[in-house]
Amino acid sequence: MVVAAAASVGGGSSVYYLKRQGIFALIGLAALVVARRWSYRSLRHVAPLLVFGSLGLLVLALVGGQSVNGARRWIDVGGTAFQPSELAKLAVVVWVALYLSKRPVPTTIGELTKPIGILLASGATEEEAARFARALMTRIEALGRVR
């Protein structure tokens, strides 16, 4: 019954969503096999690239991203959409792990204030970047109307 109901939404094909989920499941399994054979220690060398790349993608999503329910948080990639904040979460975790691995083991809570502050600031930064981009876009639109 669910498959038949999906036919009206899935472009007339009753198995459209089944095929789509199957394709994504196969892609996920392939990524699982690659990730299993790949050493996570190699992320140490790309941590800064991950951080700056994810920040660039966040700005790209805010400026030219796909609007879903009034929010520009998605980047359209081929037939699917990508949310750069998911990559940003991974980048922050990898960067903080790199930061902590280069320093002696913290023995007090006070020694963790900087990395914890960085984690908290990264969450605030994403929201602040969104507010800044919305304000900037509003001003640009207002200037366009004035001229």
Question: What is the strand and helix layout of this fold?
Answer:
Layout: H1 2-9, H2 16-37, H3 43-64, E1 66-68, E2 71-77, E3 80-82, H4 84-101, H5 113-146
Antiparallel strand pairs: 1-2, 2-3
Give the ordered list of helices and strands. HHHEEEHH
Low-confidence stretches: none
> What is the mean pLDDT?
76
The coarse silhouette is extended
Count the domains: 2
Largest sheet, if any?
Answer: 3 strands, antiparallel
Query: Could you state the oligomeric state of the chains shown?
Result: single chain
Q: Give the proportion of residues in helices.
A: over 70%
Report the count of strand segments: 3
Terminal Cα separation, in Å?
Answer: 56 Å
Q: Determine Rg (CA atoms, Å).
A: 21 Å
Strand neighbour order, sheet with most strands: 1-2-3
Number of helices: 5
Beta-strand residue fraction: 5-15%
Structural class: mainly alpha
Can you offer a commentary on this structure?
- There is one protein chain.
- The longest helix is centred in the C-terminal third of the chain and has 34 residues, at 113-146.
- The N and C termini lie far apart (56 Å).
- The chain is mainly α.
- Helix 3 (43-64) runs antiparallel to helix 4 (84-101) and helix 4 runs antiparallel to helix 5 (113-146).
- The protein folds into two domains: 1-38; 41-146.
- Helices cover 71% and strands 9% of the residues.
- The protein has helices spanning 2-9, 16-37, 43-64, 84-101, 113-146, and strands at 66-68, 71-77, 80-82.
- The model has no long low-confidence stretch (mean pLDDT 76).
- The radius of gyration is 21 Å and the shape is extended.
